Amino acid sequence: MGDMALPRLDYIRGFASVPFAYNYFKEKNQLTTKPQRNDLVFFDWSGHKTNFEHTGLFKCDNGDGVTFTSIEGNTSNPDIPHSNNQSNGGWVIEKIRPYTCAIFAHPVN
Questions:
Q1: 53-63: per-residue pLDDT in tens?
Q2: Which phi and psi (to 5°) does residue 83 adopt?
Q3: 70-77 — which CB contacts under 8 Å span 24+ positions?
Q4: How many helices and strands in the chain, by DSSP H and E?
Q5: What percent of the chain has pLDDT above 70?
C-alpha cells in the first residue's frame, strides 16, 4: 500500500476537529464498517456514535469479533489506562478498543 495524504479538511493537510472530520467523510460516503489497515477511526466513548471526540488509525481486527487494535496519539498512559483522559493524555501507542465505540473512514483521493 502506498502513502496517502489526507485532503485539506480544517488544516492545509488533515484535521484537528474530530467532529468536522467525521462529518466530512460521512458527506463523501467514505465511512466503512469493514476497515482496512491505516483507515481512520473516530471514537465516541459513550458508544452512541453521535459525539466523536478522538481519532486514530486502524491497525487490525483482533479476531474475537469484539475488538480491534489502533494506533493513537494523545491518549492515556498505558500503565494507568483509566486515570487519564482517553482523548487527551499525551501518549502515542497501540490500543485495543471495542468496535462499539468506533466508526471508520476509508479516505479516497
A1: 999 999 999 99
A2: -90, -25
A3: 70/41, 70/94, 70/95, 70/97, 70/102, 71/95
A4: 1, 6
A5: 78
